[in-house]
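Consider the tokenized backbone below.
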């Protein structure tokens, strides 16, 4: 059977080592001691409070690592037409949902018991918001995995525009860097994530335009079926990039108290005072 003629065929990205993804930054922090050193420098005298903040930070990092892995496996399943891998990816979603609820409860418990101020308060409220974005990226991975299952059952091999794996690689980097900025309080890394959104938007426009031309030139049902699914994947990856940007914006607020949401690109943003200390 004929395949899509217009888009370029994607080369399969090398599979990621799962151990390198989960627990990801949490493992890195525990091995290097960066979490402990950062909390110690904050001058806390209450060891129990320090332990609670450390535990919260690690929980968010582990959740992020699981979401990164889900996204990677979902696209791998799509390219390889591997329905079993796609199904295993979908089965990871309840773990992400449970992590969101547990972290929410952890944050509320700390707020009630410790009544934190200034930077600690920003950190805890940031964690509450970050898990929402991470959970939604997990939902995006599930959507892509479901498309992978559907396409694996068609007689025609799914042909992907090579912009799809490029988008996935950039989104993975953005999510990883956003969590890295969160763990290490790296302001420049967070700003770089925001700037990377332009790369995702440009690739999405390219993929969408190419696939739209294919639909106009070849309107056979089996061709349209594959093209529509690939366009959906591109849109979901673009949306995942938006979630990564929001994560980075929250980290910027945590570090210096500047709220850069809804204010245009970084070059247009005016820095604000650190009102909360």
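A designed sequence for it:
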């Amino acid at each position: 059977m004929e395949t899509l003629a217009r888009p370029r065929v994607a080369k399969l990205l090398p599979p990621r080592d799962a151990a390198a993804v989960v627990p990801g930054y949490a493992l890195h922090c525990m091995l290097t001691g960066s979490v402990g050193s950062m909390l110690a420098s904050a001058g806390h005298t209450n060891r129990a409070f320090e332990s609670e903040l450390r535990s919260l930070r690690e929980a968010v990092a582990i959740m992020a690592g699981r979401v990164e892995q889900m996204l990677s496996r979902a696209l791998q399943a799509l390219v390889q037409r591997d329905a079993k891998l796609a199904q295993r990816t979908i089965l990871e979603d309840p773990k992400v949902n449970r992590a969101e609820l547990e972290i929410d409860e952890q944050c509320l418990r700390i707020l009630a018991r410790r009544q934190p101020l200034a930077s600690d308060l920003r950190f805890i409220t940031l964690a509450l918001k970050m898990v929402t974005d991470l959970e939604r990226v997990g939902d995006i991975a599930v959507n892509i995995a479901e498309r992978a299952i559907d396409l694996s059952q068609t007689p025609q091999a799914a042909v992907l525009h090579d912009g799809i794996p490029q988008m996935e690689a950039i989104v993975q980097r953005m999510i990883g860097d956003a969590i890295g900025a969160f763990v290490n309080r790296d302001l420049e890394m967070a700003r770089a994530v925001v700037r990377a959104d332009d790369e995702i938007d440009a690739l999405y426009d390219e993929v969408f335009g190419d696939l739209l031309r294919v639909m106009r030139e070849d309107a056979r049902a089996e061709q349209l079926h594959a093209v529509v699914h690939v366009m959906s994947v591109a849109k979901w990856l673009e949306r995942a990039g938006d979630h990564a940007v929001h994560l980075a914006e929250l980290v910027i607020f945590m570090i210096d108290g500047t709220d850069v949401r809804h204010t245009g690109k970084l070059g247009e943003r005016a820095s604000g005072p650190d009102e909360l200390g």
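Residues 18-268 form a domain with the Methane Monooxygenase Hydroxylase; Chain G, domain 1 fold (CATH 1.20.58.220).
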